[in-house]
Structures are given as structure tokens and as C-alpha cells.
Structure to design on (163 residues):
């Protein structure tokens, strides 16, 4: 089951009907995308350093930026014809920036995949070693030498009392 996000702009958002409004929307989209690129690059650096626990601090800001870009892009889609005519220079800047955003997004995805692979490998190794049957602890006799007798307890070091 997938969750479909509503991409229609809410009715209270005004339509883009002036050149200034079109340019302002494009500027907001450009600035939000710049912030997202910076955030993705920081998150990728954290992952590459092996510090996934520090990423939590980035998630709140990333979610807020995602909400902004989603809202602005839905307004853009709704009024695309007018915006393309009113702000062609700003649209070209957004298109150029999209390549950098895709590059940062791909690098972030690759780092997440690598982190997941390392985590799964560690879990697999730990699980394999945990289920491997190992010999019991060495047993020490009265003379403090390792003896051949079985230990009666399950501890790291046990004393053979059958001497």
C-alpha cells in the first residue's frame, strides 16, 4: 500500500497572476532547493564519517524544507503556463540547479545504501557468531593448571571440584 501525497495547492494560496509573484515563487523554489542541497551534502558527509546518529538533527529541517518545496511546486504546476512566460530567466536557473540537486540526492542515496550494507553485514556477522557453538570455559584445578575435567558451572572461568 502506498501513501499518495496531495500535491494540489490549498485553496487559500493565491494564484500566480503577476510577473513579480512568478519571480518571487521561482526565487523561493531556488532558495529552498539550495538549502536542501546543503542539507543533503551535510547528511552525506555524516554518513561517510560513519556517524548516522548525528543525522537526526538534520531531519526536522529537511522535513520542513520538503514541505515548502512540495507546496511551492504544486503552485508552480498549477500556474506553470503563466510562470514560464513571466519568469523565463528564473526557470532556467531552477533547471540548472536541478542537476546539482540530483547529484546531491544520488550521493546521499549511495551513502545511505552503503551504510545499510555495512549495518546488515555487521548484524549478519554478530548473528552468525552468536549461534556458533563454542567450547565451554577452561577449567582450572587445584594446582591452577588447566585440567581436562568438565566444569559444572557456566561461567568464564570455573574450578573443577572433581579432583
Amino acid at each position: 500500500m502506498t501513501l499518495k501525497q496531495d500535491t494540489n495547492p490549498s485553496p487559500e494560496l493565491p494564484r500566480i497572476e503577476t510577473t513579480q509573484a512568478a519571480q518571487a515563487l521561482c526565487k523561493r523554489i531556488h532558495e529552498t532547493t539550495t538549502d536542501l542541497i546543503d542539507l543533503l551534502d551535510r547528511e552525506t558527509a555524516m554518513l561517510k564519517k560513519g556517524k548516522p546518529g548525528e543525522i537526526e538533527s538534520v531531519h526536522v529541517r529537511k522535513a520542513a524544507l520538503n514541505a515548502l518545496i512540495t507546496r511551492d511546486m504544486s503552485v508552480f504546476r498549477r500556474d506553470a503556463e503563466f510562470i514560464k512566460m513571466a519568469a523565463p530567466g528564473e526557470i532556467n536557473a531552477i533547471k540548472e540547479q536541478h542537476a546539482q540537486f540530483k547529484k546531491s540526492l544520488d550521493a546521499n542515496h549511495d551513502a545511505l545504501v552503503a551504510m545499510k550494507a555495512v549495518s546488515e553485514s555487521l548484524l549478519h556477522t554478530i548473528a552468525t557468531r552468536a549461534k556458533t557453538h563454542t567450547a565451554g570455559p577452561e577449567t582450572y584445578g587445584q594446582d591452577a593448571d588447566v585440567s581436562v575435567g568438565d566444569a559444572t558451572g557456566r561461567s568464564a572461568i570455573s574450578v573443577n571440584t572433581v579432583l
